[in-house]
Amino acid sequence: MKKLLKISALIAAMALSCAFFGCSNGNSSVDNNSNSGGSTTISFDDCTETANEVNLSDGNWTLKITVISDGYSSEGHIKATASNGSYTYTSGSETRTADLSKEMTPEELTEFNALSTDKKKQAIIKRMECPEDATITFNGNIVTIKASYSTKEALQQLQSEFDLSTLLSELPPEAIIKTNSDKTKYTITLSIDEGKGTAVFYISKD
After folding, report:
1. What are phi and psi of 148, to 5 degrees?
2. Main-chain dihedrals φ then ψ at residue 84, nearest 5 degrees
């Protein structure tokens, strides 16, 4: 089963072997050409220049990471401060939706559905490596998970496991990178899950 963005992003960007962060019917709340930061929505329509690398100048940046794959979708948000090529995370959150009938065997799903709601939530937290305080809701076989990284400890763990410096320096050659004229916005598009899914990074300077 897919893990949180901190694990999945690295897999998608460097291994391209698993699906990343939407529902099983193909619907998704992902806006594929914008980055919402607070009440402001930033358009990436001006990212028309092809780039070979991503260079984030010193300052504050917002990252939105969207993933759509078979029966699975995710949207993650990270606020980070860049300084001399290193990054400090200041906030993070993620919403994921998964069709458990595509994530579990029929036997596993039958056993899972026999559990109480509380035990189901604990099983999801363990299996999908969610924070203990994540909000988990069920609608039939569809599970929705909302997680926030607000404490210092949570942000440090997110930063250690989702290493932005490594990710940006080790993008695969297949990655499609677009930027605007003053290099304050980037989009990175990756094919994942053996071509069955797509991960897109929207990066903008605050």
Report:
1. -125, 135
2. 55, 40
Nearest to 87 by CA among 78, 98, 77, 99: 78
Contacts of residue 198, defined as CB under 8 A and 6 or more positions apart, other chains included, come to 67, 68, 69, 189, 190, 191, 192
Which of residues 152 and 161 earns the better pLDDT score? 152
d(CA 18, CA 2): 8
In 21-151, which ranges are continuous DSSP H helix? 100-103, 106-113, 117-127
CA 90 to chain centre: 16
Cα distance between residue 47 and residue 63, in whole Å: 15
Pull the structure tokens for residue 64: 């939105």
**Is a pLDDT exceeding 70 seen at residue 156?**
yes
CA dist 109 to 74, 113, 140, 141, Å? 21, 6, 11, 9
Contacts of 124 (CB under 8 A, 6+ apart): 130, 136, 143, 145
Residue 68 and residue 28 in contact, taking contact as beta carbons nearer than 8 Å: yes
Q: What are phi and psi of 149, to 5 degrees?
A: -110, 90
